[in-house]
Amino acid sequence: MAEDILHEVTQNEYKYGFTTDIETDIIPTGLNEDVIRLISSKKNEPEWLLEFRLKAFRHWQTMKMPDWALLKIPEIDYQSISYYAAPRKNAPKSLDEVDPELLNTFNKLGIPLEEQMALSGIAVDAVMDSVSVKTTFKETLAEKGIIFCSFSEAVEHHPDLVKKYLGSVVPYNDNFYAALNCAVFSDGSFVYIPKGVRCPMELSTYFRINASNTGQFERTLIVADEDSYVSYLEGCTAPMRDENQLHAAIVEIVVQKNAEVKYSTVQNWYPGDKNGNGGVYNFVTKRGICKGENSKISWTQVETGSAITWKYPSCILQGDNSSAEFYSVAVTNNFQQADTGTKMIHLGKNTKSHILSKGISAGVSNNSYRGLVRVGANAENARNFSQCDSLLLGDKCGAHTFPYMDVNNDTAIVEHEATTSKISEDQIFYCNQRGISTEDAVGLIVNGYAKEVINKLPMEFAVEAQKLLQITLEGSVG
Amino acid sequence: MRPIPNIMLEIKDLHASINGKEILKGLSLTVHPGEIHAIMGPNGAGKSTLSSVLTGNPAFEVTHGKVSFYGKDLLELPPEDRACEGIFLSFQYPVEIPGVSMVNFMRTAINEHRKYNNLPPLSATDFLRVMREKKELVEMDNKLTNRSVNEGFSGGEKKRNEIFQMAMLEPRLSILDETDSGLDIDALRIVANGVNKLKSPENASIVITHYQRLLDYIIPDFVHVLYDGRIVKSGTKELALELEKKGYDWIKQEVDKK
Fold this sequence. Notes:
The complex is a heterodimer.
Chain A (H helix, E strand, L loop, with lengths): L1 H10 L12 E3 L6 H10 L4 H15 L23 E3 L12 H9 L13 E7 L2 E5 L2 H6 L3 E4 H7 L1 H7 L10 H9 L3 E6 L8 E7 L10 E6 L4 E9 L6 E4 L2 E6 L4 E8 L11 E12 L5 E8 L4 E4 L2 E4 L5 E10 L4 E10 L5 E10 L4 E10 L7 E10 L5 E10 L5 E10 L2 H9 L4 H17 L4 H14 L6
Parallel strand pairs in A: 3-7, 6-8, 7-9, 8-11, 9-12, 10-13, 11-13, 12-14, 13-15, 13-16, 14-17, 15-18, 16-18, 17-19, 18-20, 19-21, 20-22, 21-23
Antiparallel strand pairs in A: 1-2, 3-4, 5-6
Chain B lengths: L8 E10 L2 E11 L4 E5 L6 H9 L4 E10 L2 E2 L5 H7 L1 E4 L6 E5 H15 L7 H14 L4 H4 L2 E2 L5 H15 L3 E5 L7 H14 L5 E5 L13 E6 L2 E6 L1 H10 L2 H9 L1
Parallel strand pairs in B: 3-10, 3-11, 6-9, 9-10
Antiparallel strand pairs in B: 1-2, 1-4, 4-5, 7-8, 11-12
């Protein structure tokens, strides 16, 4: 395996950086109410959804881009972005109707949409630019009453569920990017796990930005009813482009009594080139609510891509005895910037949260952990443990930790531990002396450092994540 | 007529410095397969510098001289290639690498060696078999190989782990840098046993030590005294005993007189 990695490292800068030449239905750049009406009508949306969009848009116009993160964000001209791009062939009924070029793209990405996925037991929803292309295994899942489909299909076929939960965890006015997403979101995935059902396979969504000058604004909504369980994976890539592309997604998770949702992300948007040109702006709002007693949410993220990442997957622990976990590895190299972390809001009694964040900075990048632990006045016996580790490669990068605590109940126990370390020349030389090249040594050490988090990922993702870590850090030790 | 022995390592007039300060000042040494050379000397003589320079530690700069290993210019090779050529250093202070398991570390190392020699990677089964054999050879505890590289190891465990790695990698030339320091007598015996079991007519060792004690267990063919960056005296095992008895001062005086 080390050989493959080395080969990849030396041969590829960003192996997902290809574009697909397919006919695209793209609307002109710019953002106003007419554009929003156009998006909504292209998707044949009901009136209530259009109203939701317009309400969000009107509110968004009163908002400013947040500036509290430790990020240098160039000014973004929201009028120069196209808010809808779709592969022209719409809504394929079967695999035969999917554009062969598109299938080719997903094959290149290693996501065969065919039922051969049965082997790995993952059901995939693939989103290209703005439109959900194909959801596999829909029938298999339907037998158990599980709904796994594109967001648009959910709006069409399960409007009551969507209406009930849309915006219930992340309200339309939550923050600047969330409001923007609510106004212009194009597609995404919808998951509903009925009472007492344990989803028999991993559900997975693959996001891909392809067209240039487009933003991607997808939404994911996951509802786990009482006593249910689902593990959900999300992966993302984009072509290499000189200009920056905006990605502002929302993920909402609702977990009822005794249910559990495990959400894993391997984020590998194009990070820009070595000089900091191009790359995706990843401004994402992810939040889950443990609504019922004994419910559980687990976020695992491996963040290697994007020029700028602004992302805080959070949990609201409302149900008594509910628990939440946040495991994160964030890597920045060259000119990448990341400000990422989590919020754990303890409202119920005996609620527990565990935060484990591993930041890795190289090049001239900046990597910040920002986390909030809030314990409400009624959250008796709330318990939090946070551990934030930073690893530095070289002496031109930065690692920062911003832990916030807001504890309003005397019975709470909140702990925070933080470490900062550097890969030492002695460690590298020790590996060298055993025949291991510097590049491989860094990969070995970094993967060792991130192991606790990587181990939380489902198998296939863990292997991919390990390779990504190494590739991202290529050339970071001289 | 005896056949001319094949030369393994040839160091000629080696000068090396760290941070601009010259430590090695014209060191020469020749090692043939099957030989054990002990290098002794007072603190600051340049013993550890020699091991660092031979293995390519980038902290040191070679300012003059030549080192060849089976005819190859060693100084031209990056450290990992020197390792794959068969030069192993048992570190005086082995570093800890948290999170990297010994198994993973060793498998990577072995497969890098094999790749260098155009061999396919070892299968998991073969690797584990080799690992088991070598663990027995150096009386290495199972629980140590299940941990991260050197993490939380005692001083003795770290040294034993070095010998274990040496057994795994089967080097042509092993350099033992103060392997005896920090070892109690039992650990010393185990480590020395390991080294002796690995000895063959094809490989050679350079044993760097401050004390003669280790040489009771690892019997050297040659003993060299390193002082002020040069080998100032060479002899056989008896020289080590003499040093033990008389200390280094008489050598210093002898050299300083010249």
